[in-house]
Amino acid sequence: MAFGVVMRRKARVSLESYFLGSRKVPWYLLGISNASSMFDIAGTMWLVSVVFIYGAKGAWLPWLWPTYNQVFLMVYLSQWVRRSGALTGADWMTTRFKNAVGLEMARMVLVVFALLSVVSFSAYAFKGLAGFASIFLPDTLEPTTYAFLLISISLLYATLGGIRSVIFTDIVQFALLIAISVVIGYYAMVFTSAESIAAVTPEGWGSVWFGRELDLDWSGLLPQLNDIIQLQGYELFFPFFMMMMFKGVLVSVAGPAPNFDMQRLLATRNPREAALMSSLVSLALFPRWILVTGIVVLGLVYYSSDLRLQDPAFDYELVLPHVVSEFVPIGLKGLIIVGFLAAFMSTFDSTINAGAAYLVNDVYKRYLRPNQSPESYVKLCYLASILVVALGVGISIFMDSINDIMGWIVGGLWGGYAAPNILKWHWWRFNGVGYFCGMLGGIASSVSLPELFPQYSFIQLFPAVFLISLVAAVVGSLCSRHEDMDTLCSFYRKVHPWGLWGPVIEEVRNRKPEIEANKDWPRHIFNIVVGIVWHFMLVITPLFLVIREFKSMWICVGIFLFTSCVLKRSWLDPLNREKDPS
To answer: What transmembrane ranges does the database entry give (predicted)?
Structure first.
């Protein structure tokens, strides 16, 4: 909070200073801040529950987001985003669309999506914090009251100093998170053994491989987990995995969602640093899996007998706080509580800072008061932040669990985002009207289809949502005139994407013969495949370490080193040589 007060004067200079730190923050600080914001308490509780139930196979389930989207950003999309020089995702639209009607339609539908996304993440964080508080904090206050108090603190320092406050506190909080990860991992390895873990887990629990079916039988250990696996629909794991992969690749190609991830990319000093920042995020999240697996191992070895006596409807998202509350000694428990509260605040402050940008810059400034002083806009950011938080808290009341909110975000909302945002990068004929139709079709179908077909999960409905959005985007574009060639040529010269840009490339070369078409897509695809393997090794190496599958761990270390060498040669070296295409 003191840092927020100190940074207040710098933050009030302009909206760019408030939301992007005047684009002067080093990439490694932005990368740590971004990773810290992703190291959230609700997500960690969910990861503990899936690794507890599915073992090493649970490492695949974060591909629902997908977590490997950072690889796509690292390889090429971060540079494409940063070259725009925009302030927000909606502001970015002015680099791609210029037709007055289409541009405003595209901007407004993205603002709606961004606010839905930010509010949903606020609800997700609030739900996780309330669950955590219900276990750890004294019952003199309701868990939601504790959550309100912590939200108020986060809100105050985040609004005072803007992104500088957020980054500073994220770095301090990330240090705390590293500390609790190492301590819990060490504690788990000292007080458990490979034999004690094997005694409380079914055959295949420690293996990352799977067939058509999951083949995990908890009958003689925790039989209620078999019901949970069946209820969640992961029993036929291979079809689920293929659908998850299909969805993950499409969402990743669409680029970053308009949240704090995109904000960090736009805040970097140049496109090269944007790519480096995305690469650091994957590396910085390595300790999270030590923490997750440590909690799981302690829970299995010391808590399984108690869980057998629990109600079959026991919420396994609460395994993490129960384990820490029951089996971690005083002192260490305090450190862990502080670390997880830091994780919550780190996610929450980034979310509200990014959400306020859309309300102030893309609604108030653009449509209501376009010529006010920078200081007056920054003051309005305080009110906008409060509004975003209030909406998120209100929505969380109607959600039963973290998994419900996560399902809506990753399966429903993201399904509507993917198609139009893939087309904006890769198809010259795409326009603002098409973007509006695609996003509107996606948002509407992601809301309505789960109500019409409640028997299907969000991931099962993703193909339908994606198809509706894609058809709406293509039809909307073809039924309206394309963007003028000056706009398209300017965008191509600045961003230099690959894809279906034939007529634009021809026109650009007529005007500037020295500009070559972007033919890097084979190298990018190769780097993405290698990068996904590299990223996955960062997930399962610490998992195998803590559960003492040392042979598998060393194989993963070898694969990680090999893929790192390949990426150094095929990604990092060309990145360092690359020049601004414009």
So the answer is: 27-54, 60-77, 105-126, 146-167, 174-194, 236-255, 276-303, 380-399, 430-449, 461-479, 525-546
